[in-house]
Write a structure and sequence with these properties.
The chain has 372 residues and is an alpha+beta fold. The protein contains eleven helices and twelve strands.
Length: 372
């Protein structure tokens, strides 16, 4: 993790040196605070590293071995394809900053990336983060990055570097933004291809943990409109946590169960498509897993929408169509599965700790998603 300095220097100014004229610190950038963050996060980063991570902590770039020459570790990729994506957490960070809850948005950042990556059938390999903020407060900044490291642990990928940029002229005091970049690998023959989706395939949904990281501009508008108290406990949502804590529940990371499921079918292509349900909801994401000759029919009575969504809908007077267009409504990930394997896939997912929902099916159509 590099320091906020953009000069390329890895050293801090000598303490006690006489001050002459303008300084970087006086302009709002504290190099020593950035160095302190680097030291604080070392243990968190190391927990995400395997033998495939190379180079030293704090280097200018991270290094990761795609394969090994050693027979013990050799992965034998025959025709590897690298898969990459980048994403952020959106305005959820504003709520986190306002309430001082900083240890969860890093998990969100990892989730938003690796959940997109595994849709292609890829295994996450490594992750890099970017944190922009007004001022580096070492404990608070380390808490955000430790959340990123925790997300990488959950996803099974290595956090091999990142950037912490202190920019007081860009961010207001207390504000920050976090984004990330993930890289994975998939065998070319195993990459997910929407052309394989066929009528009769079954839709299997994996439950979300809440709002995840999309729609928070509307969430914050509802809070303002209804004058909701973020520090109040609402028993119908959670008897022990405040509304802010419920809303900031981290995005679920589906990497381990999905990768484990796919690895169990190395010959048969049981999963014909997948979708990460983000902004746009089921209609705006499931359609991306389809080709122009098929359509998806989702049965709305196949799962119970979590109370948090209906709570927000009631307080914001939001129409049903808008809710399903903006939020995941309790389903964070969808797999499209061959019908003869649907029951087996659900059993496997349950054994991995998931609670899969049979959402509907694929029919002939023109790439559309219908909510019934």
């Amino acid at each position: 993790m590099k320091t906020p300095s953009k000069t390329g220097s890895r050293t801090s100014p000598k303490k006690g040196a006489p001050s002459k004229g303008l300084t970087y610190a006086a302009s709002g950038v504290d190099i020593e605070a950035g160095d302190a963050v680097v030291d604080l996060i070392k243990p968190s980063l190391r927990r995400t590293h395997s033998a495939r991570v190379m180079g030293q902590h704090g280097a200018f770039a991270g290094m990761f071995r795609l394969d090994y020459n050693e027979a013990l570790f050799k992965r034998n990729y025959r025709d590897p394809v690298l898969v990459a994506c980048t994403d952020g957490v959106g305005t959820k960070v504003k709520l986190a900053a306002d309430r001082g809850i900083l240890d969860t948005v890093g998990i969100d950042c990892v989730a938003m990336n690796v959940n997109d990556l595994i849709v292609q059938g890829a295994e996450p390999l490594f992750f890099l983060d970017y944190l922009g903020l007004s001022r580096v407060d070492p404990p608070e900044t380390a808490a955000i990055i430790e959340g990123v490291a925790r997300g990488c642990e959950i996803a099974g990928c290595a956090l091999i570097g990142g950037e912490c940029a202190e920019m007081p002229d860009i961010y207001e005091p207390g504000d920050f933004d976090v984004a990330g970049f993930a890289v994975g690998v998939v065998e070319l023959a195993r990459a997910v291809d929407p052309a394989r989706v066929e009528p009769g395939d079954v839709l299997i949904g994996l439950r979300s943990s809440g709002i995840h990281s999309n729609g928070f501009s509307l969430v914050r508008r509802i809070i303002q409109h209804a004058q909701l108290d973020l520090d109040e406990v609402h028993p119908e949502l959670d008897p022990e946590r405040t509304l802010a804590q419920v809303l900031l529940e981290p995005t679920r990371i589906y990497a381990r169960p999905v990768v484990k499921l796919l690895s169990g079918y190395r010959v048969k292509k049981v999963v014909s498509g997948m979708a990460h349900i983000t902004g746009g909801g089921l209609p705006g994401n499931l359609n991306r897993a389809l080709h122009d000759g098929v359509a998806a029919e989702v049965q709305l009575d196949s799962w119970e929408v979590p109370r948090l969504f209906t709570y927000l809908q009631e307080h914001g007077n939001v129409a049903d169509d808008e809710m399903f267009r903006v939020f995941n409504m309790g389903i964070g990930y969808v797999l499209i599965v061959r019908p003869t394997f649907a029951e087996a896939v659900q059993r496997k997912l349950r054994s991995f700790g998931e609670d899969p929902v049979r959402l509907g099916k694929i029919v002939r159509g023109k790439g559309e998603v219908t909510l019934r």
